[in-house]
Amino acid sequence: MDTAARIERALKDAVDHATGPGAPPKIAAALRHAVFPGGARVRPRLCLAVAHACGDDRPVLSNAAASAIELLHCASLVHDDMPCFDDAETRRGRASVHAAYGAPLALLAGDALIVLAFETLARGGSETPDRLAHLIQVVSGAVGMPTGITAGQAWESEPAVAIDTYHRAKTGALFIGACKAGAVSAGADPAQWEGLGDALGAAYQAADDLRDALAESEEMGKPAGQDEAHERPNMVAECGMADTKARLEQHVAGAIAAIPPCPGAADLQALIKGEAKRLMPKKLVRHAA
Amino acid sequence: MDTAARIERALKDAVDHATGPGAPPKIAAALRHAVFPGGARVRPRLCLAVAHACGDDRPVLSNAAASAIELLHCASLVHDDMPCFDDAETRRGRASVHAAYGAPLALLAGDALIVLAFETLARGGSETPDRLAHLIQVVSGAVGMPTGITAGQAWESEPAVAIDTYHRAKTGALFIGACKAGAVSAGADPAQWEGLGDALGAAYQAADDLRDALAESEEMGKPAGQDEAHERPNMVAECGMADTKARLEQHVAGAIAAIPPCPGAADLQALIKGEAKRLMPKKLVRHAA
């Protein structure tokens, strides 16, 4: 099974479990809407690529890790889009969960996805209990407090924050978590994979800031101009377009350089180069050409 | 250390971890506000009472289980109180989290508490990995989909639901989870503890419906009359005050009868009798006297 199919299969198993017998129908539909069809699935692909590079001797556990990372990402999108945050009506080119099912079910669906992520880890880890506690700590550190993506968004309610601190928590933490979770699920030391996740998260955030500033709603599948509208720190506003583009390219190069020597290094390089191409806003590519 | 002190200590350790170095200050304050000072802490007390009855040979794990159950309960209260649900300005006799910190931080604080619950389980379970996967599945089943407390609230968005199904998910699931988590953390079979949790959850929900219908805001520390205001199923509306009071008494008797033979049976009986006294609305006690 190729990686994309493996991820969709693992996510389907997880969501099927949550929407099984006894589930209220509307929230069950909201959960499926939040997870399928997905976006680029970049975080779970990264997680499995790192697991593969580390030998992937426990694919049931690495599947669970990749699913959990993606479910947590989906949860954060559902809650981000709610009226009390971005109030975004669209996501991935169609109605956001609250636009389709209302704010109460969006709130509950996000909560249920967070719970499902950890339940999925436990179900996938029941045969490899020696790795489970560490894996959960890596994943929870990426999304929870004090420095996970929850903290990243909470910085938006503070009077001031350094943009690097903000971006590292808001976006970098889950990329780092994806890399480290892949390593831990394969029984490897996660520390040497932190640099890769950090660089990729920074690249991704620079690209997101560029697209938001360029107002590429259609390309993003969600409303653009959100940072300015919500007075959030944005690298383009702070450093300018050219500097942000240069930083994006530096972060991509940094990510490739951060891959430790391993059997799957070539696959990882290919993944990163493909992402770099996908991340660069079309307008900037056309402009350069 | 007595049970109450043990619970507060374990919760403090968990919240200290989440609000440690790097945490944005406002959400850190919101997390503390959500957890301290607590209510009756009935679910973690129940969890530890069951663990005690089962030998409590791994108190680090049972502390983690009790904390996780309470953190998840606190998370549900924070999200319940938000404007898109009950829009309640008060909780436990003071400002609800969204009233004190705004809806965005309340949403994030609830999310962070859910994550923290599972992180706390993993941290407490690192020395007892053989019990961790099962424990997480018991806890996630109590709060997530398809039949945990998230599902319970999601039934409020459906056109119709049987009141027993609704109450068992909305309230019973976490009482059952507290009992089963106590058993699993002590290495015991959780199945024989389900009846106790189920009966106590039903008693608690009957009491809550009575107090809501009696409009005892002061006694509850939160706005009363919410079920009628939100057109939610309420046992008093369906069965009348006298029948609901009779059911509450039956559920308490059922809970005592459901305690399996064990060394801590007397402690558990005392806990349940104390709760029964606390749960019965003062107006009904005065009326009877």
Describe the structure concisely for a colleague.
2 copies of one chain form a homodimer. By secondary structure, chain A is mainly alpha-helical. Chain A has helices at residues 3-18, 25-35, 42-53, 59-80, 97-101, 103-124, 129-143, 149-154, 163-185, 194-214, 217-220, 226-229, 235-239, 241-258, 265-279, 282-288; strands at 90-91, 94-95.
Overview of this protein structure:
The structure is a homodimer of 289-residue chains. Chain A is mainly α and 289 residues long. Chain A has one domain (3-288): Orthogonal Bundle (Farnesyl Diphosphate Synthase), CATH 1.10.600.10. Chain A has 16 helices and two strands. Chain A has helices spanning 3-18, 25-35, 42-53, 59-80, 97-101, 103-124, 129-143, 149-154, 163-185, 194-214, 217-220, 226-229, 235-239, 241-258, 265-279, 282-288; strands at 90-91, 94-95. In chain A, strands 1-2 form a two-stranded antiparallel ribbon. In chain A, strand 1 (90-91) and strand 2 form a beta hairpin. The longest helix of chain A is centred in the middle third of the chain and has 23 residues, at 163-185. The radius of gyration of chain A is 18 Å and the shape is globular. The model of chain A has no long low-confidence stretch (mean pLDDT 93).
User: Shape of chain A from CA axes?
Assistant: globular
CATH fourth-tier homologous superfamily of chain A: Farnesyl Diphosphate Synthase
- Return the structural class of chain A: mainly alpha
Query: CA-to-CA gap between the ends of chain A?
Result: 38 Å
Beta-strand portion of chain A reads under 5%
Q: Taking all residues together, what is the mean pLDDT of chain A?
A: 93
Kindly state the number of beta strands of chain A.
2
Q: What is the H-and-E element order of chain A?
A: HHHHEEHHHHHHHHHHHH
Give me the oligomer status: homodimer
CATH level 3 topology of chain A: Farnesyl Diphosphate Synthase
Sheet with most strands of chain A: 2 strands, antiparallel
State the domain count of chain A. Answer: 1
Low-pLDDT stretches of chain A are: none
The pair of chains with the biggest contact is: A-B, 64 and 64 residues
Radius of gyration of chain A: 18 Å
